[in-house]
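Q: What residues go here?
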């Protein structure tokens, strides 16, 4: 195998390894008490009286993102927030059981 082909193959393998490792931090479930107070306060302010059901933490582009599932007025939502409490997205997920 030529040195050029070896270098090219090595570069491709390294790129794949970096791509996989960058995306290898999967969402993981965390306890509600482990969600930063800034996140909980922001959700409570936007959804007064909501019941917090569960939470996940995720790493996206080197930022820590919190996803909290809530029940508010019989509707189920997934609220995505930064650690500082900035709500990034609210997805309707159905009705509460």
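A:
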């Amino acid at each position: 195998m030529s040195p050029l082909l070896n270098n090219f193959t090595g570069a491709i393998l390294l790129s794949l390894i970096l791509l996989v490792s960058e995306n290898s931090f999967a969402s993981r479930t965390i306890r509600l008490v482990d969600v930063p107070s800034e996140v909980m306060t922001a959700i409570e302010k936007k959804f007064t009286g909501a019941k917090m059901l569960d939470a996940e933490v995720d790493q996206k582009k080197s930022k820590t993102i919190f996803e909290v599932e809530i029940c508010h007025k019989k509707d189920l939502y997934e609220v995505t927030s930064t650690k500082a409490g900035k709500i990034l997205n609210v997805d309707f997920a159905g009705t509460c059981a």
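A: Context that may help when evaluating the design: DSSP finds two helices and five strands in the chain. Confidence is low (pLDDT under 50) at residues 16-22.
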